[in-house]
Amino acid sequence: MKKTKLSDLKFEDLFRREPEAGRLFFNNRRALIFDAATMGVLRRQLLSTMGWELAMGVLSRFGYEHGSNDAEMLGRKFNWETDTDWLASGPFLHTLEGLVHVTPQKIEFDRGTGHFHMHGIWLNSYEAETHLKLFGLSAAGPVCWTLAGYASGYASSFFGKSLLAIETECVGKGDARCYFEIRPVEKWGPEALPYLSALQAVNVAERLRESESRFYDIALSSSDWIWEIDADGLYTYCSPGVTKILGYTPGELTGKKHFYDFFAPEEREQLKTSQLEIFSRKADFNLFVSRNLHKNGEMVILETKGVPILDRGGILLGYRGSVTDITERKRLEASLLQSEKLSAVGQLAAGVAHEINNPLGIILGFAQSVVRKIKEDDALALPLKTIEREAIRCKNLVQNLLVFSRASKSETLEELDLNTAMEGVLSLILAQAKARNVELVRELGSGLPKVNANQIQLQQVVLNLAHNAIDAMPKGGTLTIRTALPGRRPGYVELRVLDTGTGIPKDLQKRIFEPFFTTKEAGKGTGLGLSLAYEIIHKHGGAIELESEEGQGTEFTVYLPVHSAATLLAGGAA
Amino acid sequence: MTGSEKHILVVDDEQGFHDLFRFVLEPLRFNVHSAYDGVEGLERFRERNYEMVFLDVHMPKMTGPELMKLLKEIKPLQLVVIMSSGSDSRQVFEKAVKEMGAVACMYKPFELDQVMKQLESIPRA
CATH code for A410-574? Predict the structure, then answer.
């Protein structure tokens, strides 16, 4: 068989037409004629759907197969005069196929030692031209991926070992020419890694699947809610954690709701504006705290972290991050702060009570003794009775203050039937309610377990709550006092005081248990009633909660631990 | 009440309470004696008989309950009323002083009726 030299290789000899059969052949394989722009469509699709790394992988792999097939066919079809002719035939074929014009600069190889080194200039790369036309100059590196893949595939197939072509200069990234260098894989440094992982495109996909499955494992098992939104703020992913946090399934949010849809209505615009401001800076955010409406209507406090998702050009595609429910934590913090405030008031009260009680006792004593000595129609009767009445008011104020200081000391709790304790105060409340045109409704649940409580203090709590409720209904209304086993808190008995009064504005609700906070006009209230109630209930190991709607009324719920639970708790803490 | 005068001892470091007791009780034919601390109270107590003794709790030199203990040693059946102005836990304090022999514990600022109620408990001579 005649030996072939590189110079013998002619396009016409390699090219064969079967027009009647609709087939073309090149180098003995069926060939297709595409225009470069059609390859560009493929490139654009790959880049836009899979991103840079995966697109590079697919196209490099495609070039690699093409190159190694060419090397095999050229080796099988021709009897080469020298290995150098055979080796050079690859770049030459590439040139004949119209993909690029290759000019090898240097070819060194030794099949015995495995030494291989080749570099050269690739001109008129179809790929660099197409990329430039579609995307402009590449900022992220060379773009002749099919050509590099071809060179790697061809050389590897020819040599029977792994060789890697790297494009060191590229017209697509603004260089005057494309320049390639081919070496055995092990002769390259770290710069080879992206090319190697591109050629192992299948493995990249595998790694992606692993990483995705890792992500889903975390997202599925986390009690946090992991989310992703697009640039418009529309949810594009929600982990199942959202169901526990907001009550909705991921499907109810993804593609349907925006990140701001669950913000508390009264804060929505402000929170949305501040989030959008962060988005406009493409900034990370951490510890973004917002009040959100749960599906069941309750308000939950959420802490959100997020990072922007940017494309290679720095365009914001969206955000992703996670949400933690901090409602309970915030409640505890608030309650701790409240306890500290109350205890400070208590200490202050204990300190001054002694100093106030002496002069107050003298004033009250003289006032009362003089009132008894003068006649009803005496001109001084009114002023003296006023002094007496106001002194008694001061006395009550000081006594209320002292409850704080005593709250920290132990006061005996006893096993108590909540309903029986209520009977004692209901008559007092009824008298007051009647006088103010308020209907008193009693709904005392039957068969309630006993609670661990101090009867007098408990009665004081109910009196305070009822007194406030009646004050909140200046035009009359309905006051309901209800005892029951709560559905939500096992181990507790609940006591509710509901009114149909004016309600408490949202911004005041969090301050209402503060000592000396009052909405009543000066002289009408001491601002201690509710903070006392708070202090007493907390000392009982219970909780007091408030729900109020302006114009609709207010509902206070007191939770008291049942006797056995309190004993268990005490035992457990010891 | 009988025509004979009754003697009351008030031990308190506040002048105002002495004035008050005098103002209220002298027209009712009580003879009000004053002492301003525990030591002086003990001296006054040794001088004569009193139908009732009112003791403030917080005083210089000796507290009311301490003085009560000494008085009771001298005269175990002496009627003593403790007057507290403090913030001590009422249940505990009251229980303690009553066990020590006080007939009552009044908390300042007390009302006149409470004083009168105690005086009514004095047995008629």
Answer: 3.30.565.10
| A-chain residue closest to B110, CA distance | A361
User: What's the ipTM?
Assistant: 0.85
Q: Quick check: pTM over 0.80? A: no
Cβ–Cβ below 8 Å for A358 and B24: no
Q: Is residue A349 less than 8 Å (CB to CB) from chain B?
A: yes
Upper half-sphere CA count for residue A147 (Cβ side, 13 Å):
36
CATH of B6-119, one of 3.40.50.2300, 1.20.1090.10, 3.20.20.80, 3.30.565.10: 3.40.50.2300
The Cα A362–Cα B47 span in angstroms is 27
A395 CB neighbours in chain B (<8 A) are: 109
How far is B88 from chain A, CA to nearest CA, in Å?
Answer: 7
The CATH superfamily assigned to A3-203 is: Trafficking protein particle complex subunit 3 (3.30.1380.20)
Q: Are A519 and A508 in contact (CB under 8 A)?
A: yes
Interface of A with B in 135-194 (CB under 8 A): none
Q: Which of B23, B85, B87 sits opposite A358 (nearest CB)?
A: B85
> CATH number of the domain at A329-409, please?
1.10.287.130
- SS3 state at B51: coil
Amino acid type, A232: D
Q: Identify the closest residue of chain A to B114 by CA–CA distance.
A: A365
Inspect the interface and report whether the beta carbons of B86 and A354 lie closer than 8 Å. yes
- Cα–Cα distances (Å) from A83 to A86, A122, A153, A163, in that order, read 5, 22, 17, 17
Chain B: give the shortest CA distance to residue A541, in Å: 20
Residues of B with Cβ-Cβ distance to A393 under 8 angstroms: none
DSSP string covering A291-340: EEE-TTS-EEEEEEEEEEEE-TT--EEEEEEEEEE-HHHHHHHHHHHHHH
Please report residues of A whose CB lies closer than 8 A to that of B107.
357
Written out in words, the top-level CATH class of the domain with range A222-325 is alpha beta
Compute the distance between CA of residue A188 and CA of residue A190 in angstroms, rounded to an integer: 7
Chain B residues whose C-beta is within 8 A of a chain A C-beta are 14, 16-17, 19-20, 23-24, 58, 85-87, 89-91, 107-112, 115
Per-residue pLDDT of chain A (574 residues; tens, 9 = 90+): 678 888 888 888 889 999 899 999 988 888 888 888 888 899 999 888 888 888 888 899 999 999 998 888 888 888 888 888 888 888 888 898 889 999 888 888 887 777 888 899 999 999 999 999 999 999 888 999 999 999 999 998 888 888 899 999 999 999 999 999 999 888 888 888 888 888 875 555 666 777 788 888 887 888 899 999 998 999 999 998 999 999 999 999 999 999 999 999 888 999 999 999 999 999 999 889 999 999 988 889 999 999 999 887 888 999 999 999 988 888 777 766 766 666 676 667 777 777 888 899 999 999 999 998 899 899 898 899 999 988 988 887 777 666 655 554 446 777 888 888 887 678 778 877 888 889 999 999 888 888 888 877 787 788 889 888 998 898 899 999 999 988 777 788 999 999 999 888 887 887 788 766 676 655 455 566 788 888 888 888 888 988 998 888 999 999 998 876 544 444 333 2
DSSP assigned state of A245: H
Interface test with A, best of B105, B108, B111, B115 (most A CBs within 10 A): B108
